Amino acid sequence: LMSDGVPDSSGDRLEGEHKLSRALKQCDGETPGEIAESLMFASMAMGVPKDDMTVLVIKLQKVNEPPLLCK
């Protein structure tokens, strides 16, 4: 999840989204923090930020236990 300021730093949102997509594909095996950092660095490399930038990366993990039921 990212705010619109991240792809907009390139000056062209569509171009920024394509560049960020390529950067994301190179993040295989990285932690959520490393992925967020990579996306921010890729965005900042495209140009001077024109808006606030927020990146949130979460990791979903399968749990091998049944869900807890409330009584």
Mean pLDDT: 86
The radius of gyration over CA amounts to: 16 Å
Shape: elongated
The secondary-structure element order is: HHH
What fraction of residues sit in β-strands? under 5%
How would you explain this protein's 3D organization?
With 71 residues, the chain is mostly helical. Helices cover 45% and strands 0% of the residues. The protein is built from three helices and no strands. The chain has helices at residues 5-8, 13-25, 32-46. α2 runs antiparallel to α3 (32-46). It is elongated, with a radius of gyration of 16 Å.
Provide a brief overview of the structure.
With about 70 residues, this protein is mainly α. It has helices at about 5-10, 15-25, 30-45.
Outline the fold blueprint:
Layout: H1 5-8, H2 13-25, H3 32-46
Helix pairs in contact: 2-3
Main features:
mainly alpha; 71 residues; 3 helices
